[in-house]
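Changelog entry: the 2-nitropropane dioxygenase NPD record was regenerated in this release. Current contents:
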Amino acid sequence: MLIAAGGIMTGRGIAGALAMGAAGAQLGTAFLSTAEAGTKPGHRRLLAEAAAAGEGRTVLTRAFTARQARKLLAAGEAMPAEPAMLAAFPAQHGLTKPIRARAEAAGVPEAQAWWAGAGAGLSRSLPVAGLVERLGQELAVALEGLTRSDR
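Regenerated structure tokens:
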């Protein structure tokens, strides 16, 4: 059984994954903007900006944890250079924690690890129940479209 994950933010994305043979779809970033997510204010702000722009600039980095993860970039933030040397995981995460905390307090998003997938520009600020309902509606429409195209 294959579960599709990565870049899925809409019911249409779920339908595409199912049409390609996946048994299900896993959505992550799609839920970061929900009220129930516990996402920090700075993170929410960047997600809202990405949604308003219709794109979320992200970059893969190892700088914060020593493991590769996708960081959401702030407007105007340049792609960060990868450090030449990193401590092993989880030590790197611990070493950068005070830096990230001070950056959050000072409102400096460039020095924070605001994780988000490549589809961050499709984020929607809804309660979880509303997002799930919307995804279901979009999925139904997309599946109906797939069924019609098979006729």
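The two ends are 28 Å apart (CA to CA).
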